Amino acid sequence: MKEVMSMDRQFAYSKVPLITGGFWLAKLISTGLGESVSDFSVGIFGQKNQVAGAIFTVVWSLGLFSFFLIRQLRNDRYQPINYWLSVALLAVFGTFSADGFKAVTGLHYFETTMIFFVLMLASFAVWYSQSHDLSIHHITSRLNEVFYWLTVAFSFMLGTAAGDWMASSRSGAYNIDTSSLGLGFLNTGLLLGAIFLVLVAFRRFGKPTQNGLPEIISFWAAYALTRPIGASFADYFGYDFHGGVLGNRGMSLIWFVAFVIVLTVIVKKSGSTSVQLEQPVEETMAHQK
Question: Is 244 exposed, middle or buried (0-12, 13-18, 19+ CB in 10 A)?
Fold first, then answer.
């Protein structure tokens, strides 16, 4: 058991999926799913029992996330079901964590956005100090894998806070915040979606040098943006579209079906194979030294 979870453990295969169009689609759907399910779960006992709903949401989302992430960490290869269920459940727990942090501290959305941004940068700094490698193509050791998931968690919280900062109203509406930009859910989703497409196009057609700074920054910027994009559209169709006819329950069902379809395609394409390294493990270890 100690050897399985050792931070020095090395792998012959990458522990994360290749960055393809399917990857970005699954990530966007998982964020929309996380937003709708989190809001639905918190309100499942009614508006007068928000605390009970919050506790219920934390228990089941954190519990299931821990279960699937531990399964992924124990395995020596990327497993689509464990990986993507961990991402989807982190979307639920990350949403609640960011919202809960604001509620407990009483800070504005802009302030919580800056805090999570700094925490994400700190994660990168410690990651680099320990491995001298921030490449998402080199998640071939337990150390890099743990820092990868820590950074992913902060990206969810950052995206949640940033999306709310941009979309929330300054006055006269539910969940007001005087620091917010007041763009609304739809405008926020469209604006950030356009930026996301520019980043993805840069990665696809600009062909930045793999593991170079532009490639690393463009990946994590696009990754963090998927959270407020998916959440903004989830909230727009859940609350604003035709007077909120779909609601969180309807949107949770829609996102869930979409997620199952995409995950099924990913699993079928993966089969029993794993995503191999672009270079031998020996070269990766030498690079890290």
Answer: middle
